[in-house]
């Protein structure tokens, strides 16, 4: 038996909330805790095929979990689920003695624990110390505590502006940084007068939250300021940049970058699908995600940024988001000093040894009708695909009972277009099986006549 075990802790919510400059409140905070702290956690099932123990929030579906492992040819990993007090996974684990005892027993046959997380927070270092206290060696897949500052710094949307001054191959859009409401109003008016459209972004947004596009139309600046004043994502300072028009048919290029002790060890290409110019919806992952010319540019930028991050002491996964400009230039928009939401796709590619053969299309918020269940409506659609040898999986089914139910899915094929067609077929299959639910819901609606 291996002496090494991976402890997989998808601490996405607390990572997004970790920065003291971002003080989310009310619905915004609740949404991050619920979506990132439960729904997205299930993607970690796909991170690795190695001996591992998963820490997942309560509420995961056992049938789905077993199906995924059986289809991938893996033994189901043991799971520890701490009692949900805060909705923050590591914090809840640190407050749950029973869950700690269960985890300690699962780890006890091993000598070395490799801690795999979304990204570092003060709580992850406490968790590592706890496991070391059990007499086990702990290896981090992220920065040591003395280099934690580099993770915070790189994660700010200001860092690409600094790095662009240092690295000649990095392009960033023209912009201004506003530190208060008076400056922000002036910056928006000055920048929209100059460029027509701008994007205003808080330094620590999540999946497009904390961003907004503002035009030079009459009243647009005041409308934006009114909305931002009621949104706790908009914390100062705020970056206002020229909105770069997107090149047709490319998507928003991105890359996951693994920074090791000796520098950049891996680059995984991605292409994001966004709405309104900034709001994330889906991602294609693999060498086929981008046209070759854009893929070469993103790879070069990824190596430059990863090398710069390495010099700052950063280690672990990070990702860079870009815009393929209609002017044929690649613009860096932000760095995320963490595992990206698409790294479960990269995990599958590595598991299959198919980094150069397959492209995956991952869709995070596929809407379904109320009453949809995994067992009755979703599982049969995937069973048919699995019987035909299709590599497609539901990656999160936790949100089926939510008021606006969604499911996350992923599909692999030789090309991005083929993978997208598989996803479209999955949606059609689920819709066909839930047609009766939709019809029933429509019949139950009161007359509006």
How would you sum up this structure in a few lines?
Helices cover 38% and strands 26% of the residues. The protein is an alpha+beta fold and 449 residues long. The longest helix has 20 residues.
Q: If you had to describe this structure to a student in words, what would you say it looks like?
A:
With 449 residues, this protein is an alpha+beta fold. Among the domains are: 4-141, Rossmann fold (3-Layer(aba) Sandwich), CATH 3.40.50; 174-242, ATP-grasp fold, A domain (Dna Ligase, domain 1); 358-434, TATA-Binding Protein, CATH 3.30.310. 38% of the residues lie in helices and 26% in strands. The protein contains 15 helices and 17 strands. It has helices at residues 12-16, 26-39, 62-72, 89-94, 97-107, 122-133, 148-155, 159-166, 181-195, 220-229, 292-311, 343-352, 374-387, 416-433, 435-444, and strands spanning 4-9, 52-55, 79-80, 112-117, 137-140, 175-178, 197-206, 209-215, 238-242, 252-260, 263-275, 279-285, 316-324, 330-336, 359-367, 392-396, 406-413. The protein has an eight-stranded antiparallel sheet with strand order 14-13-10-11-12-15-17-16, sandwiched between helices. The protein has a five-stranded parallel sheet with strand order 3-2-1-4-5, covered by helices on one side. A four-stranded antiparallel sheet has the order 6-9-7-8, with helices on one face. The longest helix is centred in the last third of the chain and has 20 residues, at 292-311.
Count of helix runs: 15
Overall SS class: alpha+beta
CATH class of the domain at 4-141: Alpha Beta
Which CATH architecture of the domain at 4-141 is right? 3-Layer(aba) Sandwich
CATH third-tier fold name of the domain at 4-141: Rossmann fold
| Strand order, sheet with most strands | 14-13-10-11-12-15-17-16
Based on CA inertia axes, which overall geometry fits? Answer: globular
Helix proportion: 25-40%
End-to-end distance: 69 Å
């Amino acid at each position: 038996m291996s002496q090494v075990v991976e402890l997989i802790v998808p601490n996405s919510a607390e990572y997004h909330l970790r920065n003291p400059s971002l003080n989310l409140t009310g619905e915004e905070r609740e949404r991050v805790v619920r979506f990132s702290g439960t729904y997205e956690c299930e993607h970690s099932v796909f991170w690795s095929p190695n001996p591992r123990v998963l820490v997942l929030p309560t509420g995961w579906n056992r049938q789905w979990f077993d199906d995924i492992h059986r289809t991938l040819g893996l033994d189901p990993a043991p799971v520890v689920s701490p009692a949900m007090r805060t909705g923050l996974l590591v914090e809840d684990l640190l407050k749950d003695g029973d869950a700690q005892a269960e985890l300690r027993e699962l780890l006890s046959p091993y000598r070395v624990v490799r801690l795999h997380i979304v990204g570092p927070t003060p709580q992850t270092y406490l968790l590592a110390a706890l496991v070391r206290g059990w007499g086990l060696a702990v290896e981090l897949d992220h920065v040591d505590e003395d280099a934690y500052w580099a993770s915070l710094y790189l994660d700010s949307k200001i860092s690409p502006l600094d790095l662009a001054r240092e690295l000649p191959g990095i392009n960033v859009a023209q912009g201004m940084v506003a530190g208060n409401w008076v400056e922000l109003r002036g910056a928006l008016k000055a920048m929209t007068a100059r460029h027509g459209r701008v994007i205003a972004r808080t330094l620590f947004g999540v999946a497009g939250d904390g961003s907004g596009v503002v035009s030079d139309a009459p009243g647009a600046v005041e409308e934006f300021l009114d909305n931002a004043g009621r949104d706790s994502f908009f914390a100062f300072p705020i970056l206002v940049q020229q909105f770069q028009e997107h090149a047709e048919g490319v998507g928003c290029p991105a890359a996951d970058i693994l920074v090791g002790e000796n520098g950049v060890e891996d680059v995984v290409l991605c292409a994001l699908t966004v709405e309104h110019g900034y709001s994330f919806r889906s991602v294609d992952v693999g060498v086929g995600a981008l046209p070759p010319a854009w893929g070469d540019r993103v790879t070069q930028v990824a190596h430059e940024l990863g090398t710069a991050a390495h010099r700052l002491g950063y280690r672990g996964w990070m990702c860079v988001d870009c815009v393929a400009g209609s002017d044929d230039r690649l613009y860096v928009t932000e760095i995320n000093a963490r595992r990206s939401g698409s790294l479960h796709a990269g995990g599958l590619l590595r598991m299959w040894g198919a980094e150069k053969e397959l492209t995956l299309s991952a869709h995070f918020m596929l809407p379904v009708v109320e009453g949809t269940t995994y067992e009755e409506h979703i599982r049969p659609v995937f069973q048919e695909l699995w019987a035909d040898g299709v590599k497609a999986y539901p990656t999160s089914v936790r949100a089926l009972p939510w008021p606006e139910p969604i499911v996350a899915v992923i599909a692999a094929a030789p090309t991005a277009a083929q993978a997208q067609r598989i996803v479209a077929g999955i949606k059609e299959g689920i819709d066909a099986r839930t047609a009766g639910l939709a019809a029933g819901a429509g019949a139950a609606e009161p007359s509006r006549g």
